[in-house]
Design brief:
This protein is an alpha+beta fold. It has a domain of about 80 residues: Nuclear Transport Factor 2, Chain: A (Roll). The longest helix is centred in the first third of the chain and has 12 residues. The model has no long low-confidence stretch (mean pLDDT about 85).
Length: about 120
């Protein structure tokens, strides 16, 4: 296990951003189990990406985490990334290009929150 500080994480993220045509990650809550000053957790991930070199795909994964309580809050002590499903067939869609208008949202079926705002 390597220790990475904030600057190493930031630099790694910036390096990766240059490789992607687009990358979308959705993290879905899992669970956290507390045990005194330590905890374990799990989060579910869905990723959709296309790299500038043509690699692309859709995957579903799980983060398996360990945490430790510190004086300034909870900290990660370990994060394991487990891919559970990987599809590398060509993606049919594409990311919107800069300056293009986003797709129109569907009509009807508005949420209660949207109705409360109107």
């Amino acid at each position: 296990m390597s220790d990475f500080g904030r600057e190493e994480i930031r630099a790694g993220g910036e390096r990766l951003q240059g490789q992607w045509e687009f990358f979308a990650q959705t993290t879905h809550p899992g669970m956290i189990q507390l045990d005194g000053d330590t905890a374990t957790g799990r989060a579910y991930i869905q990723e959709l990406a296309r790299a500038r070199d043509g690699r692309q795909g859709l995957n579903y994964a799980i983060y398996h985490d360990r945490y430790q309580r510190a004086p300034d809050g909870w900290k990660f002590t370990e994060r394991v990334y487990e891919v559970r499903y990987l599809d590398t067939t060509p993606l049919a869609g594409s990311a919107p290009r800069e300056g293009e208008a986003p797709a129109d949202p569907p009509t009807g079926n508005t949420s209660a929150a949207e109705g409360a705002l109107g």
